[in-house]
Structure formats: structure tokens, C-alpha cells
Amino acid sequence: MALKYEWLKEQLSLLIRQSIRDGIHRLPTEQELCSTYGVSRQTVRAALALLEQEGVISKRRGSGSYITGLSAAPQENLIPILISEDQDYLYPGLLEDIRSRLSEGGFSSEVLVTEGSVARERDILSDLLCRPPRGMVAEPCRSALPNPNLDLYRRLIREGCRPVFLGSSYPGLSGVLTVKDDNDSGSSLLVRHLASQGHRAMGAVLPWDDLRGQERYLGFSETLLSLGLPFQDSHVCWYSSGELRRLSPEEEVRVFRVIMTRLLSSCTAVICFDDRVAYRLAGAFRRAGYELPAAMAIASFDNTYLSSHSSLPLTSLAHRPHEMGRLTAETVIKTLNGIPVSLQESRWELIIRESTKLKR
Hints:
six-stranded mixed beta sheet; six-stranded parallel beta sheet; Rossmann fold; alpha/beta; 18% strand; Arc Repressor Mutant, subunit A; 14 strands
């Protein structure tokens, strides 16, 4: 027969799971536990000590016992991270920030690369359903399109998984947490900066299959109109993020030459979805013999190494160092602690460089 404190430990484990679901992250007081379970304070303290040893709770002097979100079973503290890529651009640093913060909270993590493929995403989700994680991070694949994998996300949620979406979420999946950029105000910040440099005719290069592209389009167009500047549909060059990822170097050169030609006919400045697009577009102008920013001022998002180490330093929007990764991990930890969390938006800071110097 189990000792009384071991029995109480099992009862408190059930209480902790229910508390997390209910958004409660603090255990009742020792006196309340004694009354609820009909046991002595010594038994309560022994059970709490076992839970503390397993990392399930932490005790704060004078404040009580708090749920850590950790499980006594190490394999249940593994957080999958579904990401489009892990080897290039901002992703290595972002993943390091997420994983290091999760590790600080006692969680391990596993990076699962979707390559932006809905089919690959489905394979990964199907595998996860064999042993549903308690929490996960997921970067959507082509988030502006209908996604056939929402049934798998819903099944994971029913199994107790708490996903946190990174960058954007799927419109058809309600009640999930998202950590994202403030895309609307980001575009507005870039438009206002370019307007201050004397530009009136502005274009944009954005992905139509990514919700972030649509949100940046909205901020771009609304700010132009609010400033009384011309807005034309023809000034916006839309592309498919999925197709762009698959282009050969030769095809990529041709695509950006077409974008360059279209912008030159009517614009003096352009906002690009990210530094990769801006870097490729600047390369198209250089290959065609144009001098930048005289021929075209270019601004973008993300402030990666491409913006600061290119032959034309790019004006770009930045987050505070490590903010997105740590905010994402902290949102996962809080949800597993039972702490209520809402939508998390990270604001942008403008980093001005040579690509948008004052128009003469």
C-alpha cells in the first residue's frame, strides 16, 4: 500500500494538470491542502518536496508553490519546433534563442524542418500524433492559403498539445496563440521614412501566399493613402514564397529583372518583404548598370546580415536582439505553467542605411 504522502503526490499531480488547463499556476496553500485532502501538514510537505524534486513545482519563500510546467517524465518536456528552414538567413539565430530559453525553463527541444511544404508539414504532424507533445512551436506553411493540415493540429490540441505559432497563424484555426511581428505598423514606418526622404511614388514586393505579406501590404497601402500619396495596384509586385524558394539561380535572375523593370517604370522607392528579397532586387539593379539609391531607394524587414554586409547597406526594420525567439519560448513556458497568455506582437525599430539616403 502506498504511503500517504505518495498518494497525495499523485492527487496533486492530477490537480496540477487540471490547474494548467484552467489557467491556474499557483497551488493552494499548505493549510488548504490539509483541509481538502484530510491529511497532516507533514504529509503535505512531504508530497510537495517530491514534486519539487521532480521539477514539477517550485517553492517560493513566503509565497507558496508554483507550477513550473515541467513533467516528471523527461520525454514529456520535449518541445517540437516546426520551422521552414534552419540553416540560413535569420533562422539559426532565432532557433538558438528559442532553444536556449526553453532550456533555461527545463525543456528540451527538437527542430523539424518543413521546407515551407504543406505535404512535409503533414508528415511531421502525423508523426507527432503518435506521441503528442504537451507544447510545440510552429511556423505556418504558406499561411494565406487554405491549409489541409488543420485537422491534424486540431487532433493534437484535443490530445492536450498547446501550439504556439510563430510569425502568423492559420485563419481557420481558432483559439491558438501567436507570436508575430507588428506588420501593419512596420510597413507604415518604412513608408513614412521614404516619404521623409522625398519619395512619392513607392512600390512593394510581397508574397501573396503569406499572411505577413498581406499584413505588410495593408500597412503600406493605408499609409500611402493617409499621407495623400499615390497608390496604384501596378506598383505592387506579388510573388509566391513557395515558388521563389524553388527557383534556380538563373530563374531567380530573370524574375528579379522583371520586377526591376516594372518598378522603374513608375516608382522611385520600394519596400521589400524581407532582406533576402531586397538583396536580390538590389543585385538586379547592379547587374543592369543602375546606381543605387539614385535609381531606386530600397527598404526591407528583418535587419539580418544581408542588410549590413552587402555592397549597398540596406535600410531595414529590426527587433530588439533575441526578442522574437525568447518571446516565443516564454509563451510556450507560460502556457504550460497555466499562466494566461494572449497574442504577442513584437514592434519594429527602423535602422537607416545607405539604400534610402535623401533623394536629391
